[in-house]
Amino acid sequence: MKTKITYSLLAAAAACSLVNAQTTAYTTPVGYVSLTIPASSDSTITPSLERSPLLKTSTTGVSGNIVSAAGLTAGAFVAPQCYLQVVTCAATPGLVGKRFAIDSNTTGTITVDGGASTLQAQGFANGDVFKVIPYWTLATLFPAGAGVGSTSDVFTIESVLYVVDNGSYGVNKASSATYFYCSGDEGNGVAAGWYDANDPFGASADDLVIDPTIMYMIRNGSAVANTLTVTGQVPDVKSLALVPVSTEQNDVNLAVALPTDLSLENSGLQSVVQGTNDVFTIEELVYVYDDEGEGLNKAASATYFYCSGDEGNGVSAGWYDANDPFGAPVTGNVLKAGRCITIRKSSYASNDILDWSLALPYSIN
Fold first, then answer.
1. What's the mean pLDDT when you consider all of the chain?
2. What is d(CA 112, CA 119) in angstroms, rounded to the nearest whole number?
3. Residue range 172-201, pLDDT digits in tens
4. Looking at 150-221, which runs of residues are DSSP E strands?
5. Total structural domains within the chain
6. Is 56 exposed, middle or buried (0-12, 13-18, 19+ CB in 10 A)?
7. What domain range is 304 assigned to?
């Protein structure tokens, strides 16, 4: 059953208007979500609301990675940095929800980064609908270090934001980048802003794009809890995240970029997690974390696996606790909104990319 999202549920203050090339108006709920980051603790985090879309319209043609549409303003989708999200795709319904970074745009076209193949080759075509949405950045998602914390001395950094992306293969991977917020360090000549912790005297990282499909982790090194409050638009299109697999075992860190919790049953993870028909040979696992509990370098608080049906051992199809494989199914257990998970993938015959389709667990009225 889907949760019904209403304006009152999200304490929405207004409706966000979108204008397309035909000047049609669209309205969707706008509200806020608050997440707690305990003192002296690590907490995974992701934006569960979107920034207000700048455009929603139909294509008038697609050629390679170039999408045509009427009435655009040249360069409008480059600063701020934006992505194109597929809303409908007649030829390839599985493409709905996928995001493509925008490289440039003219008064009549938008050029995107299509990845391994072009947007046209993936099935996006004339008449299909898309949105253009600005990315969250370090400065817009965590203004003045909100939720993370700040320092006025770049030599005494207590709290940081880790980026845990999927750019490498292996298990128990370290973070790929670390950032901190400086409130202004006059003595060391560092202006207020976000910086790379490995290059604190380098350029500002305020405009670093936040990828809503991967894991971010706040390390709150202070003695008091922080709260991150994000105000934005409720997602009205499912999300599509990339799940890389490899010839070696691989941990894939993914975001639950939704404003409501999501049950394992409705998560769609069955499409990217190999089920087992023998609970004594579980190859792929899903780790979730207690992000509201205290502690650094916390282990997973729960580990799940999917059984496709193990008649021999009397285990029916469904999700189970890996520490209690003969217990009752845990299909109703939830993935927490605005938090992150890790899928441990087994080794594959070759490197590949799977798509995790994160369906909306609610309807918008």
1. 91
2. 8
3. 999 999 999 999 999 999 999 999 999 999
4. 160-164, 177-182, 193-196, 215-220
5. 3
6. buried
7. 237-364
